[in-house]
Specification:
With 154 residues, this protein is mostly helical. 72% of the residues lie in helices and 0% in strands. It has one domain. The longest helix has 25 residues. The radius of gyration is 20 Å and the shape is globular. It starts with a helix and ends in a 6-residue tail after the last helix.
Length: 154
């Protein structure tokens, strides 16, 4: 009896898993997803050659990859200001971006578009990530969020 319940539970979990996988496959790939997958493939390729590299070399190569992709995520964000896909690009930049011109400009995008972001809660959650970042453009961006979303921030 216990064995049958275990089998039934396992079958139920498998069917839920397969439904989730099927739902994932039907979801259209976004331009962000395409760019993210391209970046991830390069990072994975770097991981695959890790034994041939020292950790310092791997870190340098990873920074090179991220430095090449930071402007690309910025450009994608600029083409999606009418939807919240630009926020996804901002999140990538916050976590993986390399400081420089494109990195700074992403916070200009945030400053200029915070007032019409649909997913304010996503912005709120992201704000804590800004603490360790170095850009003179972050404070103006945070001020814009605070000014334009005072009702939703409380």
């Amino acid at each position: 009896m216990l064995f049958c319940r275990s089998i039934c539970s396992l079958m139920a979990m498998m069917s839920i898993f397969l439904c989730c996988v099927a739902a994932e496959q039907k979801r259209p790939v976004t331009p962000y997803g395409i760019l993210y997958n391209e970046w991830k493939a390069e990072v994975k390729a770097l991981d695959d050659i890790t034994p041939a590299l020292t950790s310092a070399e791997k870190q340098d190569k990873g920074l090179e990859i991220n430095a090449r992709f930071t402007p690309r995520f910025l450009e994608l964000a600029k083409t999606h200001l009418d939807d919240d896909l630009w926020i996804d690009c901002l999140i990538w930049t916050t976590v993986e971006g390399v400081p420089g011109k494109a990195f700074d400009e992403m916070f200009d995008v945030l400053r200029d578009n915070a007032s019409h972001a649909r997913n304010v809660y996503q912005l709120q959650l992201l704000m804590s990530e800004f603490i360790n970042l170095r850009s003179d453009r972050i404070d103006p961006a945070l001020s814009a969020i605070a000014e334009t979303h005072t009702q939703s921030m409380s």
